[in-house]
Amino acid sequence: MATMMAALQSSMASLSISPSSFLGTPLSPSVPHPFAIRIPANKPCTIVMKLKRWERKKCKPNSLPILHKMHVRIGDTVKIIAGREKGKIGEIVTLFKHNSTVIVKDMNLKTKHVKPTQEGESGEIIQIEGAIHSSNVMLYSKEQKVASRVGRKILEDGSRVRYLIKTGEIIDSVDNWKKIFKEGEK
Questions:
Q1: What span, in angstroms and rounded, lies between the C-alpha atoms of 70 and 17?
Q2: Would you say residue 54 has pLDDT above 70?
Q3: How would you label 113-149 residue by residue, b for 16+ Cβ within 10 Å and e otherwise?
Q4: Distance between CA 168 and CA 148 in Å, rounded?
Q5: Global pTM?
């Protein structure tokens, strides 16, 4: 083994190339590689990765989505002011506060094809209610038959209520909430 090493060193000496020139030293900086990209060490990388749609939602520090305030609540009677169902009147069944959408009873029906879950069952086609953005619905007064924007005021007893701006009709009352919760329990 020692003889092989000595023969290698003598052949390197005859070529007048030192062994340290090959090991661990970079090539000369004067000749850049044609495909090499030089990024200065003090300059940060400016390439920004494109985020997915669900990653762009603003989140709180605990990674939960920010819930938006909405002008409507469950049980409100609303008039749809935009879209395919424009002009129709219905009642809000569900709210989705993370993306400001609502589901109105028997409105915006979508067809869903359901596969069979067990052997012997047949698949079916059902209709489900699709979500509507809250900006496309407006509170509606059944008594006055008019749609109106919502306002908020504080009554003499200190309770905060919502009311219809056009008619002055108070929407939030204890009787309304009791009725809604009784229907929800059934």
A1: 78
A2: no
A3: eeeeeeeeeeeeeeeebbbbebebbbbbbeeeeebbe
A4: 10
A5: 0.61
